[in-house]
Amino acid sequence: MNNMRSTLATVWRIAIPYFRSEDKWMARGLLAAVIVIELAVVGLNVLFNRWNNVFYNALQERNLDVFTYQLGYFSVLAAIFIALKVYQLYLNQWLQIRWRRWLTERYLGGWLAHGNHYRMQLQGDAADNPDQRIAEDTQLFVDRTLSLGVGLLSSVVTLASFVIILWGLSDAAPLHMFGRDIPIPGYLVWAALIYAVIGTVLTHLIGAPLMGLNFQQQQYEADFRFNLVRARENAEQIALLHGEPVERLRLSTRFARVVGNWLAIMSRTKKLTAFTASYSQISVIFPYVLIAPAYFAEKVQLGGMMQTASAFGSVQDALSFFITAYRTLAEWQAGVARLDGFEQAIASAETLTTKPETVHVARAGNGAIDLTDVAVSLPDGTPLVAADAFQFRGGESTLFTGPSGSGKSTLFRAIAGIWPFGKGRIAIPADATLMMLPQRPYFPVGTLQDAIAYPAETSAFTPQKIAEAVAAVGLPALLPRLDEEAHWNRMLSLGEQQRLGVARALLHKPQYLFLDEATASLDEPSEAALYRLIAEKLPATTVVSIGHRSTLQAFHLRNVTLAKSAAGYTLAEGATKPA
Q1: pLDDT one-digit tens code per residue, 165-201
Q2: Predicted confidence (pLDDT) per residue in 26-83, tens digit
Q3: DSSP string for 458-474
Q4: How far apart are CA 117 and CA 485, in angstroms?
């Protein structure tokens, strides 16, 4: 019960923002319509129950007129019932897709906001496979929450409606045993209650492990799918290293977890199904067993017997809601737990930037990027690189050198505002634009001109400007392919990708361009040509580079070396070239 209360509190926290959002009136209207229709369906079931009495009495009495009239009455009720169920499904699905769309946009916004997706990776696997949580768990949450919520409401209203009927029928058809009536007020209601309580308790004892197993199944499925995608993305390196046997073994090992957990689900589901199927079949004859003695003692007519069986079945179904919905509840609870974990991971990533002991990046300054008492560390707190009273001055190109692992790239990440671990303050001019070019640029799947214009829309640049940038970086052969859609990170060599990264910078014209070994895959003459191109095309851009080649010094006015110290690495000024 504590676990269920916690789950319901989580469901409320996840669900209620939608019904208070900008789409709240449509959401509330659709939900109200679904609920009203469900209540109308319960009302129709009450009328069907009364119809049973009259119809079967007409059969017993061979009354053709009443029989014919009741067939017409049933047809009217059935037509209304069908129309209600059709529109209930339609409106329910409409509410589902609107709710899912809103929830997906909310999670996408939180995940991708201000580098949260990157910081979540730095914190480990607290929210593994965000793709699954956004794509699948939101769909499962919306679908199961509506179906279970409406189902529970229907059960409660059905119980309230039919308990009254069943209580009255208990007086009309008293319990008859051993040739005499036993006066137990509402005995049919008590029998249904006891039967349902026993079934619910046994169902929970048998099916409780399914909740944990369903959670693990979703996790294992997502992990297997993620590693399949990862193998596809790194196909070239796997092929070059002839790593196919190892990859197959790794993937088979992960799939074995999927199979093993599924077999555990199968075993537990078999036991649960055996019980629930037995329970359901016994439920069919149980009311007849209770009422049959009174019927054969001529205490009640056939119509009364059929009405009693129908009412008992309705009460029994309402009381047995958790039995019939147990598997759905287990899947739903697992999905709720995964969305809850995802929200907590997003919130944790956001709080990383607000902690006192963090690297704070602010839009302020006097035309230079100022680093004040900055000490960048690893996530575990290990000191990495320190910089105090250091400036990246506009118009003064700077080359960063130092041993691998000294924290050069991490310092760039801190300046970009995505690395929070450490302390200090980084002030960036309010109107300055920064662009970071890593060693392996990212190109979204789409047309080549879309990939080059990223993160701006292609419409921000004329086709002529894009073509000029591509030709300027030495890739005229790609000009006929600007409108071609492809996975460019796989189609192009790393050298070509780095050239297109520079083309991207030529289009965006940032005030500060940080090159993190962004030309390392090119030969020295090609690298020199690109640096000259940047100087020619972007005269107002301040270039800050990380590199290991001595030839890069010719293209920078300032040289900064990371030197080993007791507190990690510190910045040491080298010789500065005259402007």
Answers
A1: 777 767 766 666 656 666 777 777 787 778 778 887 8
A2: 999 999 999 999 999 988 988 888 888 888 888 887 888 888 998 999 999 999 999 9
A3: GGGS-HHHHHHHHHHTT
A4: 26
Contact criterion met (CB below 8 Å) for 401 and 548: yes
Domain boundaries of the chain, sorted by first residue: 2-351, 360-573
Say which residues have a Cβ less than 8 Å from residue 179's Cβ, sequence separation at least 6.
none
The answer, yes or no, to whether the previous bond of 438 is cis (omega within 30 of 0) is: no
Residues in the chain: 579
Best CA proximity match to 280, nearest among 312, 323, 328, 315: 323
Rounded Cα gap, residues 522 and 531, in angstroms: 12
Q: Are 17 and 102 in contact (CB under 8 A)?
A: no
Helical pair 326-351 and 187-207, crossing angle rounded to 10 deg: 50
Cα angle 18, 23, 27 (rounded to 5 degrees) comes to: 70
2-351 and 360-573 share one CATH topology?
A: no
Residue at token pair 């201000």? 114
What are the residues facing 571 on neighbouring strands? Answer: 562
Tell me the longest C-alpha to C-alpha distance in the chain. 117
Average pLDDT, the chain: 85
Relative to beta strand 390-393, strand 180-182 is: unpaired
Q: What dihedral do alpha carbons 472, 473, 479, 485 form, nearest 10°? A: -140
Homologous superfamily of 360-573 in CATH?
Answer: P-loop containing nucleotide triphosphate hydrolases (3.40.50.300)
Q: Is the dihedral of CA 369, 374, 376, 380 positive or negative?
A: negative
Cα–Cα distance, 501 to 490 (Å, whole number):
15
Q: Which two tokens stand for residue 103?
A: 């929830």
End-to-end CA, the chain: 74
CATH superfamily of 2-351: ABC transporter type 1, transmembrane domain (1.20.1560.10)
Q: Which two tokens stand for residue 422?
A: 């450490």
Between CA 33 and CA 87 the distance in angstroms is 9
DSSP-derived pairing of the beta strands 512-516 and 542-546: parallel
> Whose structure tokens read 């047995």?
320
